[in-house]
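Comment thread on ticket #2218

A.B. wrote:
> Attaching the input chain for the structure job we discussed in standup.
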Amino acid sequence: MRGGGAAGQVRPTVSVCVVTYERPAFLERCLRSLARLAEPVEQVVVVDASSTDHTREVAALGVGAQYVWAPQLAGWMTRSRNEGLRWVTGDVIAFLDDDVVVDVGWAQALRDAYLDETVAAVAGRTRNGIDGEERYELPVGRYLPTGRLTEGFAMAAAEPFEVDHGIGANMSFRREVLAELGGFRDDYPGTALREDTDMFLRVRSIGGRVLYQPDALVDHLPAPHVRGARFDTRYKLYGRRNHVVLIARHRGLGSRDLRRWVGDELRGIGDARGAVGKALRLGVTVIGVAWGLAAASRAASWGPLEPRRDGPDAEAIRAHLGGAALQA
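C.D. wrote:
> Ran it. Output below, let me know if you need it in another format.
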């Protein structure tokens, strides 16, 4: 899979979508890294929800990025991703966070993975500059029967292997798969935690293979959050809310997975340090779980939810992705 494929095999075209919000310096760094790829991509689309139009600044970089200014999407990463799907032209649609720097071999590794026609999505390797992160003791990228997720997306590996999900900072999908699913579910608010997992699990639910490709490498050099900080109380609150919705959608409100996960979260309150820590974790857990259950009662069902998204936005995405694919 690391070579150029069978003789005469056509390598897929790649569109890159970078979603950004009020971080022009980090966006510039990301785009400059894309310009240094050993095997260039065919298209780069930037969806910018910032309050200021940066068309001129992006054009001045000379990297050929297509800039879409969409300030009405501020605070909704998944809606920005869906906006990007209205502009892409490639066989493979890759999503990068604006605070990553891509390795020179990133695009080549992606194309190598997609030469296997059974591969529907690819989770790339995402380094965070943390000592020892290249080793991971658990299976990488798995959804467990407890409702928990394993991570390990910085792990080094000699060869690609199958996973259940990947990380949104460095993920890609076949065009026709995104068309079938109708784009991203756009109601994972706040930090947007689990919107990426949701998409990968939907791909799996329609029979698609998800591959972890360690050679599709980026360095994640986190930018500051516009609101709050990573792993603060707000992050944890939205995290619990969104995780409840994720499990309810993929396993159902009546699933054992959801009951086990909520039970584990409640038991984990006692692990917090000190009375203040326990009180804070109690509040975050109870409010986050209750909020998630209330949201899931509208966004899920007693059993697993149909993975294909419907509605006007989904149909517009299908019309663009499917129509362009038929013309190719």
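A.B. wrote:
> Thanks. Noting for the ticket: The CA atoms of residues 269 and 281 lie 6 Å apart.
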